[in-house]
Design goal:
The chain is an alpha/beta fold. It has ten helices and ten strands. Strands 1, 2, 3, 4, 5, 6, 7, 8, 9 and 10 form a ten-stranded mixed β-sheet that branches.
Length: 323
């Protein structure tokens, strides 16, 4: 494909065979019946509200970060669970644009490919939901957003990350799944970062110091039991200072009771109801232009519960995104 020329990756366009399910007696009751497929290069400007799914088939960053590999299987697993969810998006089109696929250790090229895809979708009035894959997906998604809005008169980008980890590690050798937000903040002085669900036991003192140096706003997992007025105020303040929002969800931010199938499980994370409430609040801002769901590792999932959680999160975002 010319979009990805000179990049050492594979690309597979959207495939309806990834969405198998029972046929409903009443027409179009489930996701697999409503969703259509296409290729990124065939993207055209949409007059109707359109959501585009794009897979990031890569766990090279997790491997570099000495995590449990297997996240490259995440997109397939999410699609499987998404297929049979009831469809309630009457006013929106859903298009699956397939997968960018990492070859061997060429994570950087895979990131560039996803960035190109995200940018093209946004420019064509498609709201992207990327599914991974390791959390190095964040560096790719952010750069896609950055390219898409670079000609806007006001283009300050805010990042909201649901995660147990800051992912602010310095790049000592090569980038990995633990370095994306450090890379972003070092390369984009106008970008701002809000991390929700940070666990002290999962982040070194150095990472808290890096967060302080970069003026990162964060909320501890201990303050994520309920969506209270204090958190609403912090979010309001953050959202008011940016023009666009990029939203990213690392599934290891959830308690392992809900998300056992991740690279770095923890019993101390948040519960799904909390996330649904806060997502609804953020999406009402109409500033969210792209999002992703990262770190699903089907090799360690139990009864496909983590995949189902990821699929339901995608469905919730698709239902509540404001254009």
């Amino acid at each position: 494909m010319s979009l990805f020329k000179e990049l050492n990756i594979a690309y597979q366009s959207g495939n309806k065979k990834n969405y198998l399910g029972k046929k409903s007696k009443l027409k179009n009751q489930y996701w697999h019946e409503q969703l259509t497929v296409s290729s990124v290069e065939k993207t055209q400007k949409n007059k109707t509200k359109t959501i585009g799914i794009i897979g990031y088939v890569c766990d090279a960053g997790v491997k570099r970060n000495h995590g449990r590999i297997g996240a490259r299987k995440g997109p397939k697993s999410i699609r499987k669970k998404l297929s049979n969810l009831p469809f309630h998006l009457e006013d929106k089109n859903i298009i699956d644009f397939g997968d960018v696929i990492c070859i061997e250790d060429n994570m950087d090229d895979c990131q560039k490919s996803l960035s190109k895809s995200i940018s093209l979708l946004i420019k064509n009035k498609v709201f992207p939901i990327a599914i991974g894959g390791g959390h190095d997906i964040a560096f790719a998604n952010f750069n896609g957003v950055k390219d898409a809005v670079k000609h806007s008169p006001e283009n300050k980008i805010g990042i909201i990350n649901f995660d147990a980890h800051f992912d602010l590690r310095n790049v000592e050798d090569r980038p990995n799944s633990g370095t994306p937000f450090n890379q972003i903040l070092n390369q984009n002085k106008s970008a701002s970062y809000f991390a929700i669900g940070i666990q002290q036991q999962s982040n070194s003192k150095e990472l808290f110091e890096i967060a302080k140096k970069n003026k990162v706003t964060y909320v501890s997992n201990l303050d994520c039991e309920t969506f209270n007025d204090n958190l609403k105020q912090k979010l309001d303040n953050f959202i008011s200072k940016v023009d666009f929002l990029y939203l990213t969800i690392d599934l290891d931010g959830f308690s392992s009771a809900y998300a056992p199938g991740v690279s770095a499980p923890s019993p101390d994370g948040f519960n799904p109801v909390f996330i649904y409430k806060i997502l609804g609040f953020i999406l009402k801002s109409k500033k969210v232009v792209s999002c992703d769901i990262a770190e699903l590792n089907p090799d360690f999932d139990i009864d496909e519960n983590t995949a189902l959680l990821a699929a339901r999160l995608l469905d919730y975002i698709a239902q509540n995104i404001k254009f």
